[in-house]
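hey team, just a heads up i'm posting the complex here instead of the shared drive bc the drive is being weird again. everything in one block, sequence lines first with there labels, then the predicted structure for the whole assembly after. its two chains so it's a bit long, scroll down
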Amino acid sequence: MRIPPRLRSRRYWLETGQAYLYLLPALAVLGVFVFYPFFNAFNISFHKVYLVKRVGGRLIPLYMEYVGLSNFARLFSDPIFIKAVRQTCIYVAISVPITIGLALVLATLLNEGLRLRPFYRLAYFMPYITPVVAIAMVWQWIYNWKYGLLNYFLGFFGVDLINWLNDPRFSLAAVIIMNVWRFVGYQAIILLAGMQGIDRMYYEAAKVDGATGLQAWRKITIPLLTPQIFFVFIISLIGSFKIFEEVLILFNNTPGPLYSAMTMVYYIFDQGFNRFHFGRAAAASVVLFGIIFLLTLFQITVTQRRVHYER
Amino acid sequence: MRRILWHSFLYLSLTAGAALMLLPFFWMISTSLKTLAEALRMPPVWIPKALHWENYVLAWNAAPFGRYFFNSFFIAITTTVGEVITTILAAYAFAKMEFFGKNFLFILLLGTLMIPGQMLLVPNYVTIKRLGWYNTYWALIIPWVVSVFGIFLLRQFFRTIPDELWDAARIDGCSRFRFIWRIVVPLSRPGIGTVALFKFVGSWNAFLWVLIMTDKVELRTVPVGLRFFMSDVGTNYPLLMAAATMAIVPILILFFFTQRQFIQGVARTGLK
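-- predicted structure starts here --
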């Protein structure tokens, strides 16, 4: 093998040294708190972890004992984990399309309505940037079955009082409604940016050919917006699989009535930090990673193949 | 005529939507200024008869909110400063330097975006315990002073800076390190601002990590403090809403002043 000439130059290696010096702080932190724990999560999932264990007369904190696949076996025979996977999937399957659909409509309207756009953007964006704990507290109050705003409004339509947070039939819906509210503006902003990147030329041409606004939207806007739509779709899919904090706050440190709002991350949290079953929590995180990994692979293959119609 | 109809429909629906977005915030503030009896009235009282500002004093004194706010500000500011420094250095190396293993490292960094943070909770808890950082500010700051997203964003900014600048500076005897802080950084202010802003907000809103890595009252941040406040206060909604308002206000103030940068930053993530 020949050594490329650049690898023999003194300047190249000097620059390499300098570059690594600049990268050192970032790589050190990522190494300790991202790369190492990533592999350690797999490792821990094959172990039983004792908070403290007496070995040969000495107390060893966080003692690990190899147990093979038994954490995974227990995980999949735990009906609560199965429920967590199920409820998470239901949550994702309902909330993602609703949010994107509304975001698309909203972005279209924002794209048309030039006046007041800064005000609208501000209003639609606020739910996204404010701390989720405070937001979930407010929604807990809105969902109050007797004095809450939501039931008050539904009363106008003749709907009986719904016990949003204590009725297992409605608890997941409560989480979904709140998060649609939280993320629709954020997604609309991304889609709006995409729409503004579309060349006006296409619309002029469509107008000359006598296309209506709706036709132009269907035949020009949507196809040319596919990259952004797909991006938002994947981002919200991945984000939705990680749902947790909303549940913890809305249901006062429970996964909802009868585990009806149990999610995968809630399960990890509960196993890991309420029960200190680190092995099983790690096993559940490996499963979560598997799902997100597959989604990301899907994103990469699709993005590389199509989606971009032009540019 | 059709145009007028379309426009009235457009602005009507946009305004109705905006009202829906703002309603929970309005309801939060309105409730926070009521007496408990007024809050529990049906049909709801939209604007309280008398504004009970004392709810804020009561909420503030019902828990060590002073400490919570100090912690949140302290952690958010130190994390942001640290992140900006590490990110500038790393992004510059990726944008403007040729070095051994560059592509490999870049792909490695890209790979981290696939890892869900929650997967790292258990192993990081073990690490933090072993380092003796449990219940310390270190645990809340150091792991967060890097942002891969920030490195990518700044790298894009730095790449637009012409190489001639560096060539000229080098001839004048300027070191690379000085060049970064004197020339590159001032030229990339908007990018750095966006990165810092995202970090600050992220840090302020962070909840789960703080909850897990500490169990001392003195180390609680505002979101974690709020959660414990909820269990203490129970169903005194005016006090709860006063506390929630206090937690949201700093972020809202920041957002009002930096709106443009913020929204452009978000829009950019979708454009790549």
